[in-house]
């Protein structure tokens, strides 16, 4: 026989449907709870205990909740007994009070009516997402202010905290998820659908990553940057940079960036701090296409994976000081960081062979452990020599 707890669980599953019908202005219809109309106990005292428990939580005893219809049935073990044949909620309030949801629904009605009065086009969204109304029940005044602003200014080009909306300065940041969902409906034609970032998606200014670079040619430094040689600018500005360069060295870490200052004369050259896998920040720098690009990373699996990543953006990229001769000469038995990458990389045959050794043994040689004099000789002998075409694997890493 069904228990009061089982009735509550089954009734709770109908709650969202009830909210949807309220918004859709559909009248409440009797909610029947399906249950076992039989009984499991052959002992009369146990049977009577079950029946009394079921009745004690019913509308008959509590003045709200479920109603029970009984029918006299002749049973095999207990003789003729009144067995429950139907259990149902007759009114909306019977159900809400039984679920202790009456105050929640009262506030739900206030909120959804407010939402639809301002944005009638959101009615279908509300019907599909009643739980979102409840989850944000104390924030709707602010949410609607924000959405009203975007409705009138769909491409504001301001930082979030610059928005002239009378809400807490962190309100939009705290409530991005719900605001995003609503704006996707309200200003569809202005939404950058492919963007996941809130600011980019809704035409706001955002804090861009900075590209830090050192100018290794003093004439460029003097002529274009008033003598400055260590500079950091937003990615979008770096993408528009227009200076007479022939060569770019991308380095994995800051220590290597400083080491570039000790290199022999590097005309028309800059060194960029790639910051590991963050080299993705400069993947859209179109003016790299016709330059000589060098990648200078640690001799470990991550170093080669970053090299491969960068070479995927710019196929002409050559590695610097990431060869087996250098590794064998200066390796100090340091452990690297394990990788879960699989598949072929954008590496030359020699690079791939060294990568395989490093991965199998979890070895690492950091570039800072290579002496300056060796680095300088390498650049004098290798980097200033005529360029050779690259031949590397072109299977993407999984």
Describe this structure in words.
With 398 residues, the protein is α/β, with parallel strands linked by helices. It has 3 domains: 96 residues, no CATH class; 99 residues, no CATH class; 174 residues, Dna Topoisomerase Vi A Subunit, Chain: A, domain 2, CATH 3.40.1360. The protein has 19 helices and 11 strands. The strands form 3 sheets. A 6-stranded mixed sheet has the order 5-4-7-6-8-9. It has a 3-stranded antiparallel sheet with strand order 1-3-2. A hairpin with a 3-residue loop joins β2 and β3. α9 crosses α11. The model has no long low-confidence stretch (mean pLDDT 90).
CATH class term of the largest domain: Alpha Beta
Q: What is the percent of helical residues?
A: 40-55%
End-to-end separation in angstroms reads: 55 Å
Q: Mind summarizing the main beta sheet?
A: 6 strands, mixed
Protein name: Wadjet protein JetD C-terminal domain-containing protein
InterPro entries: DUF3322, JetD_C
Pfam families: DUF3322, JetD_C
Domain Wadjet protein JetD C-terminal: 207-377
């Amino acid at each position: 026989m069904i228990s009061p707890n089982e009735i509550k669980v089954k009734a709770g599953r109908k709650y969202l449907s009830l909210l949807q019908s309220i918004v859709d202005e559909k009248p409440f219809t009797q909610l029947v709870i399906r249950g076992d109309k039989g009984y499991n106990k052959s002992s009369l005292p146990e049977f009577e205990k079950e029946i009394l428990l079921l009745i004690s939580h019913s509308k008959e005893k509590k003045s709200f909740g479920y109603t029970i219809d009984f029918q006299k049935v002749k049973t095999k073990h207990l003789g003729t007994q009144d067995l429950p044949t139907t259990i149902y909620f007759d009114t909306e309030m019977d159900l809400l009070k039984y679920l202790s949801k009456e105050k929640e629904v009262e506030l739900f009605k206030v909120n959804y009516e407010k939402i639809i009065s301002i944005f009638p086009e959101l009615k279908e969204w509300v019907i599909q997402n009643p739980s979102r109304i409840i989850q944000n029940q104390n924030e709707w005044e602010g949410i609607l202010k924000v959405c009203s602003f975007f409705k009138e200014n769909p491409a504001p080009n301001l930082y979030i905290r610059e928005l002239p909306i009378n809400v807490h300065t962190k309100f939009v940041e705290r409530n991005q998820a719900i605001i995003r969902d609503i704006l996707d409906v309200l200003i569809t034609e202005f939404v950058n659908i492919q963007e996941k970032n809130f600011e980019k998606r809704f035409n706001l200014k955002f804090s861009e990553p900075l590209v830090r670079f050192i100018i290794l040619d003093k004439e460029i430094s003097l002529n274009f940057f008033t003598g400055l040689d260590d500079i950091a600018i937003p990615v979008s500005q770096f993408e528009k940079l227009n200076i007479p360069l022939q060569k770019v060295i991308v380095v994995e870490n800051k220590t290597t960036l400083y080491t570039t200052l000790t290199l022999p004369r590097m005309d028309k050259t800059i060194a960029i701090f790639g910051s590991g896998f963050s080299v993705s920040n400069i993947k859209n720098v179109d003016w790299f296409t016709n330059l000589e690009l060098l990648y200078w990373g640690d001799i470990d699996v991550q170093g080669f994976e970053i090299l491969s990543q960068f070479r995927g953006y710019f196929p002409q990229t050559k590695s610097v000081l990431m060869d087996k001769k250098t590794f064998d000469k200066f390796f100090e038995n340091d452990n690297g960081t394990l990788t879960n990458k699989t598949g072929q990389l954008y590496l030359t045959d020699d690079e791939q062979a060294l990568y395989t050794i490093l991965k199998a043994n979890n070895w690492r040689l950091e570039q800072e452990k290579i002496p300056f004099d060796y680095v300088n000789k390498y650049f004098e002998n290798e980097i200033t020599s005529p360029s050779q075409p690259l031949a590397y694997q072109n299977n993407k890493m999984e």
